[in-house]
Amino acid sequence: MKWLSAGLTFFNASTIFALVGGMMAHGLSRSVATFCIVAGLLVAFLAYQVTANVPLRARKPKPPPPPPLPETMSKRQQRREERMRKTQASDPPRWRYRSIWFWLLAGCFALFAFRSFCWLIYWDGNEVKVQSINNLGDLSLHLTYIRHFASGVPLWPDNPIEPFSKLRYPAGTDLFNGVLTCLGIDVIRGLVWTGLLASLATCYALYRWAGNFGIAAFLFNGGLASFPVLQTWSFQDYQGANTIAWKSIPLAMFVTQRGLLYAFPAALLLLYQWRARFFPDYDEPALVRPPVGAGIADPGGETPSAFATEQGRDQRSRLQPLPLWIEVSLYATLPLYHSHTFIALSLVLAFLFILGDRNTRKRTLLVAGLALLPATFCVWVTTDYFHAGSFIKWQPGWVQHAGDFTMPFLQFWLINFGVWVPLVLFFIGITALSVWKQAKEPGFKISATVAFLIPAIAIFLLGYLVKLAPWEWDNIKIIVWAYLIILPFLWTGLLVHWPAHVRILVCIALFASGFVTLLGGLAAGKSGFGIADRLELDNVGVVVKKLPADARFAGFPTWGHPVLLQGRKMVLGYPGHLWTQGFDYSASNDKLKALMEGAPNWKDLARYFHARYLFWGREEKNNYATSKRPWERESALVASGEWGAVYDLETPRNPSAPAPASVPRQ
In a 3-state reduction of DSSP, which class is residue 640? Predict the structure, then answer.
């Protein structure tokens, strides 16, 4: 816990220092980045010192010494008795090797992390490639943000893909990578190490929150989508099909949505903190072993587990690991990294306030009150200073009536979620029945299961009934938290009490589809997917590095444009990215097309977009083939080569001046 708290605090503190320092210094620089990292390390060291060490296993008390052996025994009988005493004092074999499932799951997580992040982006000859097809557009946008931050533009920066707004994206993780880039760390190396360390933090946080069951549920989430493998015997990303909504969390979310690299472990640590503080008698799933016998648990109240009985009741009184200032800082800054996660945790905090006792209400109110100003600041920054329009709309059904996802009600939920649907409904039913019975008894108190199950249901209903983004599917970003929150209580309150063979069958039904999808998805990108030409990208980088960092370029709007990949601003970025950020870009796109086609008023259009430079390269030649290209006659040529040309639209062409030297191919 100390290392997890220190690592997340370092990441968060360095990013916040970079944001504030970049605002004060009007941009990042090597000196500002150095200060941010050093200050982040100091805060992380303090966090390590003040975070409570919460071990997974308490040291067993030493048993009393055995009585001496009778002198009448022969030496052979004495040796036999000593062996019997040692055997009885040791744990049963099943419990001695209880961690084997953890190491198997940790190995699967490591396989996923190394495959996904070591080949996240790489050079293959003259091509820049990504491992995941899901990252073709997403990683290109993140590269734009990282290099844009590192270029030294004033913070919070203008939007590099739209000319009339500030950056509308919770880009805290990209800001951290921008700091690393300012320190001279290669962008690709920074992306790889950030992903690997975030994977380690997420795996550990999942284990502490929901045990082995939580790690498996994260890696192998799924329903019935992958069961065609029984006919084809071909491992593929079956959940990646356009008709499947409940996609693989690691492949479709963790690798592509970089804000989750921080949001997942930070939010899981906060959930652990609140559970440990408000319900200290609750045993972590990592500590609970199946009891002897079978049956159905009483989820309405926390009963001592077999492990707690064996290890002593002191093991059940779990310490809350975080001091108040770390708890508030992790929660208050979440909007800078992932807004949906902040919404989910806010709902959990609100229901803890409603359902808790007086002390719980005081603490939740204190956390919310202290987080109000910094959280508002982070929301203000990432929403174009509150100018971004609201996407919230009443739309029941999530995506079951949207496009390729459309299916009848029962088919939609069974194909996407499979056994999870009846299992969770059964768990909710027996929990409600138990609470109804216990509520009549004197001294009734809400248990951890009930306190977290109710906000999980509320989070799910929010994602199911209300559209929170232009693309309905993006509601998965909040639905996933309903899924993660319920996991530990589903295990300790229900599954752990079933016979071993039943648990095995249930886990196979829950995780088989996700297992097939994960392995198939990791193997799918053997040859990678190209996003750019390396020589073109490098040569464009040489040119734009000499131009003002805040200058905007006119060019064809696509996600792999070399100007964007070098972190420079364009008139318009990829239309898909503009749409998901809530921009109505149709009118701007028409004006941009007129500009690039060389319309009579092309200069006025360039001034309208605040575009100083025009890039004419491979994409522009293909998409504006009929252009009159008047800038070649009227504007100064900055540089040209096989990659294309850059023109300065504010400087007229001097016929007597020699043309600038072309940038040679490297």
Answer: strand
